[in-house]
Write a structure and sequence with these properties.
Length: about 80
């Protein structure tokens, strides 16, 4: 669902009408926000880097897998002209 409402981060992850989020914030926020979104039942697209360590990477992917959700890391800047 595409919305024209302005929502805070908390509003996005708690809104039952939103199925997925794209995280393009400061690098140090990526892992925390990805975890919050996954725990709230959202699919996640996150800009590179997803996190700062291999163990954190594995934990996030395991969380997504166990919940049946998509967690995808992308170099989002490559999508721009």
């Amino acid at each position: 669902m595409i919305t024209d409402r302005c929502l805070s981060w908390e509003g996005l992850v708690t809104d039952p009408d939103i199925d997925a989020v794209a995280i393009c914030t400061e690098n140090e926020l990526h892992a925390t926000q990805a975890r919050e979104a996954l725990c709230a039942g959202k699919h996640v697209l996150v800009d590179f880097p997803l996190c700062q360590s291999a163990s954190e990477f594995e934990a996030l992917h395991l969380l997504a897998e166990r919940r049946g959700q998509i967690l995808h890391q992308e170099l989002i800047g490559l999508l721009a002209p």
